[in-house]
Amino acid sequence: MTKNIFIASAEPYAGKSVIALGLVNMLLAKTKKVGFFKPIISQQENGVKDKHIEAVLNYFSLPIPYEDTYAFTRQEVLQQTESENWGEMINTIISKFKKLEDAYDFTVIEGSDFLGEGVAFEFESNAAIAKNLGAPVLTIINGENKSTAQIVSSALNVLRNFESREVQVLGIVANRVKQEQVDDVRELLHMQLPKEIILTIIPLEKGLQSPTMKEIADVLEAKVLFGENLLSSQVDNFVTGAMMLPNFLNHIKENLLIVTPGDRGDIIIGALQANLSASYPKVAGIVLTAGTEPDEPVVRLIEGLQTIIPIIAVKKGTFETTTMIGGIHSRITADNTNKISLAIDTFEKYVDMKALDDRIITFQPEGITPHMFQYQLVKWAKSQKKHIVLPEGNDDRILKAAARLVSQNIVDLTILGDQAEVAASLKRLGLDLDLNAVKVINPATSDYYEQYVETLFELRKNKNVNQEMARDLMTDVSYFGTMMVYKGDADGMVSGAVHTTQHTIRPALQFIKTKPGVSIVSSVFFMCLPERVSVFGDCAVNPNPTAQQLAEIAISSAESSARFGIEPRIAMLSYSSGTSGEGEDVEKVREATAIVKQKRPDLKVEGPIQYDAAVDPIVGSQKMANSEVAGKASVLIFPDLNTGNNTYKAVQRETGALAIGPMLQGLNKPINDLSRGCTVDDIFNTVIITAIQCQESGQSS
After folding, report:
1. Rounded mean pLDDT of 345-374?
2. Is the preceding omega at residue 218 within 30 degrees of 0, hence cis?
3. Whole-angstrom Cα distance, residue 297 to residue 320?
């Protein structure tokens, strides 16, 4: 068992950052106290931070001062070794590391990058540092452009080299291995490596290798002419636009970068048109060479287009430009969250996390942090994949969230909308969402339409719904999506980015209906505060619940809390605590608390209680000394919608808390409502909690 791990490579561009990001993410699911340390960083210009350290600190919001994350620059190390002060340097590295180790449950250490001069010395220094810090090594081999024999030989050599220096090797990762080599590499290494070595083979992942338009623009020192908002587009291929247009169009591949002189207006316009066409793959961008820019009529034409791909201009010639682009090694940077997510997904897909877990985790987590909660949500959703329908395929945020959900393989999706319009929107947004991986259904022309109309008519004919009304209602995406869930053609639905709460919930109340013994549909938010996750109910649905309804909301919220791994301790909130207050509003809360205790004596519940007494241990012990809930409430039940909605928004804005939800509770099948101001993250998280609700409803039905 160990409190640290050293990630080392034996050559440049091996992909250490994928392992580092994946490891930190895995550890944060167990504890909030994770340190990150890179003893030697590459030389930085004044005021510029190491890109990888910055990406790790920013993405995971690690509260470590940047200057504590490294000891020396590469230049300092090379100068010191010449003057034979290596022993003093090791002492400095140890003391800086010990400061971190004392403050954190676990520290991920990353070796140096093997770039520039001094490569021969690099392996020795990494081995010496790992040995002096007492850190077992996870070593990365770069399998790119190597034969199977070369990969196996590299892995065995690195293992021997570390072991000859008495450094413990925990595992070997062969990264960027061609798909057709994966099985052979695994088999040969399994035969020759000691049993205790954790072996990981990661196939070549183009999405991690490919640079973005921003990286290319930075390396080329280019001027951005158009499409600055799409510079995050990924470039998988590039071609020189030196041929005639018809021939050039034959060379367009997915995520293509076109390199051409600025006076080739025909190539520029042809590329833009191809990008808009449903018959051609997506164009990532255009580089205009030789210091030339498009003529005024071409510029005017580009400016009038709704979708403009990134167009950048450089002073260099076409040959020099293509040579530089070919030499770019993409880095995972703080601003490229898509690539960070892909790196984490890649780690989780190929690394034996249980074996790692068994070897390195020594700590017992206290409570549940927001990162642990979100990590657990994704894990639960993936454990039993569900089918969610998103009725609002005409909204950009929905499509962006859908692309993320599909790329991480979390759920199966149906998007309601016109297929051609959805495809055009995906292209305009630069999203890599394969329409073969999702269903896109237009309700009015769907194979389901006629049977859904008939079902709706049968369900609602006693409520004065005739055939014609049923036909009309079934073209409404909310009704169609809800009917998919009712009929079992989807497991759950998430809507409300465009539609009102009423519009989203009405069909569910009409024919999904409430669970047995539940008379009221209510909602909860999972409030991810800096130190804990709290459940807030009901902040979205019921304006002024009765005491009976408030008790039902409390019981439903406690059940939701337990289902999502949070021990329910219910605070029935009011403007006074205990027996001190009087008045109609306090009495309602007092009565609701009594009903909860009577119906569910197994639940820990306190009420009436004020918010500060519910969540602050000091105030809680002063006001209600013997309470099991005061000061440590996890489920906070608000007396009415006015109080609840304002409080959750105030807490969210003032603390920077992430609010996941609202999640509707009490319905027979999961339907969830978004707010019209929702973000892509809100949609992503709401789909995940809906999928988890589907698992439960699937088990009970």
Report:
1. 78
2. no
3. 28
